[in-house]
Amino acid sequence: MDHRWGVRIAVDTPVVLVYPGNVTGRGRMTEVSASGGFVRTRFAPPDLVWIHIAGEFEEFEGYIVRHGRHGIAVEWAELSPRILLAQ
Predict the structure, then answer these.
(1) Which of 22, 2, 5 shows the shortest CA–CA distance to 75?
(2) Under a CB-based contact definition with an 8 Å cutoff, are residues 66 and 75 in contact?
(3) 44/10 Cα distance (integer angstroms)
(4) For the whole model, what pTM was predicted?
(5) Of 47, 35, 41, 30, which Cα lies nearest the Cα of 3?
(6) Hey, what's the torsion of the CAs at 31, 54, 67, 6, to 10 degrees?
(7) CATH fold of 9-85, please?
(8) How do the domains of the chain map onto residue ranges?
(9) d(CA 29, CA 34)
(10) 52: which of 13, 18, 63, 80 fits an S-S bond (Cβ 3.0–4.6 Å)?
(11) pLDDT digits 0-9 by tens, 26-84
(12) Rounded to whole angstroms, how far apart are CA atoms 80 and 86?
């Protein structure tokens, strides 16, 4: 059962992921909500690492909170990123 909070919005945005040490990877942001998002990627930094996500129109920061079969879940450092306000 899924216990995450909030309404999720489907998106399809290419992103660049950067975590400490300037280690980078690429992915696609596929879901966003007020508290976090999901990025489809093969890039697999460890849980609870601070990550910077740069998209075409938006940049986000937060912590990796979960690894899924196809990517990572991130909890935003700041609630309700601007991408949600544009939806």
Answers:
(1) 5
(2) no
(3) 22
(4) 0.82
(5) 35
(6) -30
(7) Thrombin, subunit H (2.40.10)
(8) 9-85
(9) 14
(10) 18
(11) 999 999 888 889 999 998 888 889 999 998 878 889 999 999 889 999 999 876 555 55
(12) 11
